[in-house]
Amino acid sequence: MAYHWTMPSILIKSYRMGKKAGGLYINPKKFGSLSKPCMKEMISFLNCLSLNKNNDDKCVRQKDLLSACMDAQSNKNRKPWGSINYHLQRLNRGRK
């Protein structure tokens, strides 16, 4: 298996001897520094579900906190970065 770097965060794996060529791989380290705004609320909700055997009726407070956090995030104006899949397809088109 040979690796070819196209961009700092995308690695293309090419296989030899008749195997499939050209799988795309996204380096997760690049996206590890992104902010995770509702992580605390999501972890508390998942912990509550775990403790209550996936019964979300007992986790109403955590569910409401998570929903409020997610609603607040969706209302923020963010610069549209574009779909990662669109960019991967665009880069892959040039290789064929």
Structure description:
The chain is α+β, with helices and mostly antiparallel strands and 96 residues long. It has two domains: 1-33; 35-76, no CATH class. It has four helices and three strands. Strands 1-2-3 form a three-stranded antiparallel β-sheet, with no helix packed on it. A hairpin with a 2-residue loop joins strand 1 and strand 2 (10-14). Helix 2 (39-51) runs antiparallel to helix 3 (60-75). The longest helix has 16 residues, at 60-75. The relative contact order is 0.13. Residues 1-7 have low confidence and may be disordered.
Indicate the structural class: alpha+beta
Number of discrete helical segments: 4
The first-to-last residue Cα distance is: 19 Å
Rg for CA atoms:
20 Å
Could you give a short account of the major beta sheet? 3 strands, antiparallel
Query: How do the SSEs run, as a string of H and E?
Result: EEEHHHH
How much strand content do the residues show?
15-25%
Number of separate domains: 2
Mean pLDDT value: 75
Shape: elongated
How many β-strand runs? 3
**Helical content, roughly?**
40-55%
Contiguous low-pLDDT stretches (5 residues minimum) are 1-7
Instruction: Enumerate the strands of the largest sheet in spatial order, edge to edge or round the barrel.
Output: 1-2-3
